[in-house]
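Postdoc handover notes: sequence design on the structure in folder B. Input tokens:
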């Protein structure tokens, strides 16, 4: 399940928990794209306390929308990922290294204030 909110004009927060099927993925991507309208040099906070693998249907929904997702990523400069899962931290930072223009940094769930401070910094 995804919960998407927009606490500031240039920020989108995503909370991920539980299983992710094709309908949950479709709704989440629609909500994310809508919440990201008009954002420039945005910030994203991604909370993943636990995560089950998405279904094949959810993955196919995401693959179909890759062009829109790449365009969406250009709206953001920084993404903080809050999770205690080591493999998610590693995957997030690897993704950040591969995506030009988007800096991704992983934090433990207990480091919310550090993640918030990092997101608030001006990028160089």
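Designed sequence:
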């Amino acid at each position: 399940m995804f919960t998407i909110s927009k606490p500031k004009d240039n920020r989108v927060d995503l909370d991920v928990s539980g299983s992710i099927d094709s309908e949950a993925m479709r709704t989440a991507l629609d909500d994310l794209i809508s919440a990201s309208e008009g954002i420039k040099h945005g910030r994203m906070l991604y909370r993943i306390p636990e995560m089950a693998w998405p279904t094949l249907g959810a993955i196919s929904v995401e693959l179909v929308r890759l062009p829109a997702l790449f365009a969406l990523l250009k709206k953001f400069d920084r993404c903080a990922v809050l999770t205690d899962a080591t493999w998610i931290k590693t995957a997030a930072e690897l993704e950040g290294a591969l995506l030009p223009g988007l800096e991704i940094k992983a934090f433990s769930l207990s480091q919310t204030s550090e993640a918030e401070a990092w997101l608030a910094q001006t990028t160089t």
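Context for whoever picks this up: The chain has a mean pLDDT of 90. Don't rerun without checking with the PI first.
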